[in-house]
From TrEMBL:
Superkingdom assignment: Eukaryota
PANTHER family tied to this protein: EXPRESSED PROTEIN, OS01G0693100 PROTEIN
Annotated stretches, region: Disordered: 30-94
Biased composition range(s): Acidic residues: 71-82
Domain DUF7086: 100-233
Biased composition (Basic residues): 49-66
InterPro entries: DUF7086
Protein name, entry field: DUF7086 domain-containing protein
Lineage of the species this protein comes from: Eukaryota, Viridiplantae, Streptophyta, Embryophyta, Tracheophyta
Amino acid sequence: MEGKTARVRGGDVSDPLALTLGSIYDAAGTDAAAPASPPPAHLAAPPRSTRRRLNNGSAARRRPRVKPRDDDEEDAALDDGPQEPPFPWATERPARHDTLESLLRRGVTSVEGQARCKRCTARRPVAYDLASKFRELRDHIVANRHAMNDRAPDPWMYPSLPDCGACGHKGAMWPEIAADKRQINWLFLLLGQMLGCCTLEQLKYFCQNTGRHRTGAKNRVLYYAYIEMCNQLEPFD
Protein backbone atom coordinates (compact mmCIF):
# COMPACT_ATOMS: atom_id res chain seq x y z
CA MET A 1 0.00 0.00 0.00
CA GLU A 2 1.27 3.44 -0.88
CA GLY A 3 2.17 5.68 1.99
CA LYS A 4 2.86 2.74 4.29
CA THR A 5 6.38 1.49 4.08
CA ALA A 6 8.24 -1.09 6.18
CA ARG A 7 11.88 -0.74 6.98
CA VAL A 8 14.39 -3.49 7.31
CA ARG A 9 14.10 -6.05 10.12
CA GLY A 10 15.18 -4.61 13.42
CA GLY A 11 14.51 -0.93 12.43
CA ASP A 12 11.54 1.29 12.83
CA VAL A 13 8.51 0.24 10.89
CA SER A 14 5.36 2.05 9.96
CA ASP A 15 3.30 -1.06 9.23
CA PRO A 16 2.04 -2.77 12.41
CA LEU A 17 1.82 -6.08 10.55
CA ALA A 18 5.41 -5.85 9.46
CA LEU A 19 6.41 -5.07 13.01
CA THR A 20 4.68 -8.15 14.28
CA LEU A 21 6.20 -10.53 11.70
CA GLY A 22 9.61 -9.02 12.15
CA SER A 23 9.48 -9.57 15.86
CA ILE A 24 8.58 -13.22 15.31
CA TYR A 25 11.44 -13.72 12.86
CA ASP A 26 13.88 -12.04 15.18
CA ALA A 27 12.80 -14.22 18.10
CA ALA A 28 13.09 -17.42 16.03
CA GLY A 29 16.55 -16.52 14.86
CA THR A 30 17.68 -15.79 18.38
CA ASP A 31 16.39 -19.15 19.70
CA ALA A 32 18.00 -21.11 16.87
CA ALA A 33 21.33 -19.47 17.42
CA ALA A 34 21.36 -20.18 21.15
CA PRO A 35 23.31 -23.39 21.98
CA ALA A 36 21.42 -26.27 23.63
CA SER A 37 22.18 -26.66 27.30
CA PRO A 38 23.64 -30.05 28.33
CA PRO A 39 21.43 -32.45 30.33
CA PRO A 40 21.80 -32.42 34.10
CA ALA A 41 24.64 -34.52 35.39
CA HIS A 42 22.35 -36.76 37.47
CA LEU A 43 20.38 -37.78 34.33
CA ALA A 44 23.39 -38.75 32.22
CA ALA A 45 23.62 -42.51 31.37
CA PRO A 46 26.49 -44.37 33.09
CA PRO A 47 29.29 -45.80 30.96
CA ARG A 48 28.62 -49.18 29.35
CA SER A 49 31.21 -50.97 31.48
CA THR A 50 29.54 -49.64 34.63
CA ARG A 51 26.11 -50.82 33.47
CA ARG A 52 27.54 -54.27 32.73
CA ARG A 53 29.03 -54.54 36.21
CA LEU A 54 25.77 -53.44 37.79
CA ASN A 55 23.74 -55.93 35.76
CA ASN A 56 26.10 -58.79 36.54
CA GLY A 57 26.00 -57.98 40.22
CA SER A 58 22.21 -57.90 40.26
CA ALA A 59 22.00 -61.23 38.42
CA ALA A 60 24.43 -62.81 40.85
CA ARG A 61 22.42 -61.60 43.80
CA ARG A 62 19.20 -62.90 42.28
CA ARG A 63 20.59 -66.35 41.38
CA PRO A 64 19.13 -68.90 43.84
CA ARG A 65 21.41 -71.31 45.61
CA VAL A 66 21.14 -74.92 44.52
CA LYS A 67 20.08 -77.07 47.42
CA PRO A 68 21.75 -80.50 47.61
CA ARG A 69 19.53 -83.49 47.09
CA ASP A 70 18.06 -84.73 50.32
CA ASP A 71 18.51 -88.39 49.33
CA ASP A 72 22.20 -87.89 48.63
CA GLU A 73 22.74 -86.10 51.95
CA GLU A 74 20.97 -88.85 53.84
CA ASP A 75 22.85 -91.65 52.06
CA ALA A 76 26.18 -89.89 52.57
CA ALA A 77 25.48 -89.61 56.28
CA LEU A 78 24.51 -93.28 56.50
CA ASP A 79 27.59 -94.51 54.64
CA ASP A 80 30.16 -92.64 56.66
CA GLY A 81 32.81 -95.33 57.07
CA PRO A 82 32.79 -99.15 57.16
CA GLN A 83 29.97 -101.03 58.83
CA GLU A 84 29.34 -104.49 60.16
CA PRO A 85 28.41 -106.80 57.23
CA PRO A 86 24.65 -107.45 57.42
CA PHE A 87 25.02 -110.92 55.81
CA PRO A 88 27.77 -113.55 55.60
CA TRP A 89 28.06 -112.88 51.85
CA ALA A 90 28.26 -109.09 52.24
CA THR A 91 31.25 -106.87 53.03
CA GLU A 92 31.84 -103.85 55.24
CA ARG A 93 31.17 -101.56 52.29
CA PRO A 94 27.51 -101.04 51.31
CA ALA A 95 26.40 -102.86 48.14
CA ARG A 96 29.82 -104.50 47.75
CA HIS A 97 30.44 -108.26 47.62
CA ASP A 98 33.39 -110.60 47.36
CA THR A 99 33.99 -112.69 44.27
CA LEU A 100 32.20 -115.98 43.75
CA GLU A 101 35.45 -117.86 44.20
CA SER A 102 36.11 -116.11 47.51
CA LEU A 103 32.60 -116.80 48.79
CA LEU A 104 32.78 -120.49 47.91
CA ARG A 105 36.19 -120.74 49.54
CA ARG A 106 34.71 -119.32 52.75
CA GLY A 107 31.95 -121.92 52.67
CA VAL A 108 29.14 -119.66 51.46
CA THR A 109 27.21 -121.96 49.13
CA SER A 110 23.64 -120.84 49.80
CA VAL A 111 22.07 -117.38 50.01
CA GLU A 112 18.88 -116.92 52.01
CA GLY A 113 16.28 -114.21 52.34
CA GLN A 114 12.73 -113.66 53.50
CA ALA A 115 9.57 -113.32 51.42
CA ARG A 116 6.03 -112.39 52.40
CA CYS A 117 2.77 -113.23 50.62
CA LYS A 118 0.95 -110.19 49.27
CA ARG A 119 -2.40 -111.93 49.76
CA CYS A 120 -2.29 -113.72 53.11
CA THR A 121 0.86 -112.02 54.52
CA ALA A 122 2.42 -115.42 55.28
CA ARG A 123 6.18 -115.17 55.70
CA ARG A 124 8.74 -117.82 54.83
CA PRO A 125 12.45 -118.08 54.04
CA VAL A 126 13.69 -118.55 50.48
CA ALA A 127 17.14 -119.96 49.69
CA TYR A 128 19.14 -120.14 46.46
CA ASP A 129 22.18 -122.21 45.61
CA LEU A 130 24.89 -119.64 45.00
CA ALA A 131 26.96 -121.29 42.28
CA SER A 132 24.18 -122.73 40.11
CA LYS A 133 21.84 -119.72 40.25
CA PHE A 134 24.63 -117.28 39.53
CA ARG A 135 25.94 -119.35 36.63
CA GLU A 136 22.45 -119.51 35.14
CA LEU A 137 22.03 -115.75 35.34
CA ARG A 138 25.50 -114.91 34.10
CA ASP A 139 25.23 -117.20 31.07
CA HIS A 140 21.93 -115.55 30.17
CA ILE A 141 23.50 -112.09 30.34
CA VAL A 142 26.49 -113.12 28.24
CA ALA A 143 24.19 -114.49 25.54
CA ASN A 144 21.76 -111.55 25.47
CA ARG A 145 23.66 -108.52 26.75
CA HIS A 146 24.08 -106.78 23.39
CA ALA A 147 20.38 -107.10 22.59
CA MET A 148 19.43 -105.45 25.89
CA ASN A 149 20.71 -102.06 24.71
CA ASP A 150 21.68 -101.02 28.26
CA ARG A 151 18.12 -101.51 29.50
CA ALA A 152 16.67 -104.17 31.75
CA PRO A 153 14.33 -106.58 29.92
CA ASP A 154 10.77 -107.12 31.11
CA PRO A 155 11.56 -110.27 33.16
CA TRP A 156 13.92 -108.12 35.26
CA MET A 157 11.51 -105.20 35.48
CA TYR A 158 8.58 -107.44 36.46
CA PRO A 159 10.12 -110.43 38.26
CA SER A 160 8.52 -113.83 38.45
CA LEU A 161 7.87 -114.28 42.18
CA PRO A 162 7.65 -117.56 44.14
CA ASP A 163 4.27 -119.09 44.90
CA CYS A 164 2.77 -118.92 48.37
CA GLY A 165 2.70 -122.28 50.11
CA ALA A 166 0.15 -121.07 52.67
CA CYS A 167 -2.68 -119.78 50.48
CA GLY A 168 -1.54 -121.30 47.19
CA HIS A 169 -1.58 -117.98 45.35
CA LYS A 170 0.75 -117.93 42.36
CA GLY A 171 3.60 -115.43 42.27
CA ALA A 172 2.56 -113.78 45.52
CA MET A 173 5.74 -114.05 47.60
CA TRP A 174 7.26 -110.58 47.55
CA PRO A 175 10.86 -110.36 48.82
CA GLU A 176 11.36 -108.42 52.02
CA ILE A 177 13.54 -105.39 51.29
CA ALA A 178 14.89 -103.51 54.29
CA ALA A 179 13.91 -99.88 54.68
CA ASP A 180 17.50 -99.16 55.70
CA LYS A 181 19.37 -99.27 52.39
CA ARG A 182 22.50 -100.54 54.14
CA GLN A 183 20.62 -103.70 55.14
CA ILE A 184 19.29 -104.66 51.70
CA ASN A 185 20.06 -108.27 50.75
CA TRP A 186 21.40 -107.50 47.28
CA LEU A 187 22.84 -110.94 46.49
CA PHE A 188 19.58 -112.66 47.45
CA LEU A 189 17.67 -110.35 45.11
CA LEU A 190 20.19 -110.96 42.33
CA LEU A 191 20.03 -114.76 42.46
CA GLY A 192 16.23 -114.67 42.51
CA GLN A 193 16.29 -112.09 39.69
CA MET A 194 14.14 -109.86 41.89
CA LEU A 195 16.20 -106.66 41.85
CA GLY A 196 13.28 -105.15 39.95
CA CYS A 197 11.28 -105.25 43.19
CA CYS A 198 13.49 -102.43 44.49
CA THR A 199 12.40 -98.85 44.09
CA LEU A 200 14.28 -96.50 41.82
CA GLU A 201 15.78 -94.72 44.83
CA GLN A 202 17.09 -98.01 46.24
CA LEU A 203 18.67 -98.88 42.90
CA LYS A 204 20.24 -95.42 42.71
CA TYR A 205 21.69 -96.00 46.17
CA PHE A 206 23.26 -99.23 44.94
CA CYS A 207 24.78 -97.51 41.90
CA GLN A 208 25.96 -94.60 44.03
CA ASN A 209 27.96 -96.94 46.26
CA THR A 210 29.40 -98.97 43.40
CA GLY A 211 30.43 -96.12 41.10
CA ARG A 212 27.79 -96.86 38.49
CA HIS A 213 25.79 -94.33 36.50
CA ARG A 214 22.60 -93.66 38.44
CA THR A 215 20.52 -91.30 36.31
CA GLY A 216 17.78 -92.23 33.91
CA ALA A 217 14.69 -94.39 33.92
CA LYS A 218 14.36 -97.41 36.18
CA ASN A 219 15.02 -99.94 33.41
CA ARG A 220 18.42 -98.34 32.76
CA VAL A 221 19.45 -98.09 36.42
CA LEU A 222 18.23 -101.66 37.00
CA TYR A 223 20.34 -102.88 34.10
CA TYR A 224 23.43 -101.26 35.64
CA ALA A 225 22.65 -102.93 38.97
CA TYR A 226 22.52 -106.40 37.39
CA ILE A 227 25.74 -105.85 35.46
CA GLU A 228 27.54 -104.48 38.51
CA MET A 229 26.45 -107.34 40.76
CA CYS A 230 27.61 -109.93 38.25
CA ASN A 231 30.91 -108.09 37.78
CA GLN A 232 31.51 -108.17 41.51
CA LEU A 233 31.12 -111.92 41.65
CA GLU A 234 32.82 -112.73 38.36
CA PRO A 235 33.87 -109.98 35.92
CA PHE A 236 32.68 -110.34 32.34
CA ASP A 237 35.99 -109.27 30.81
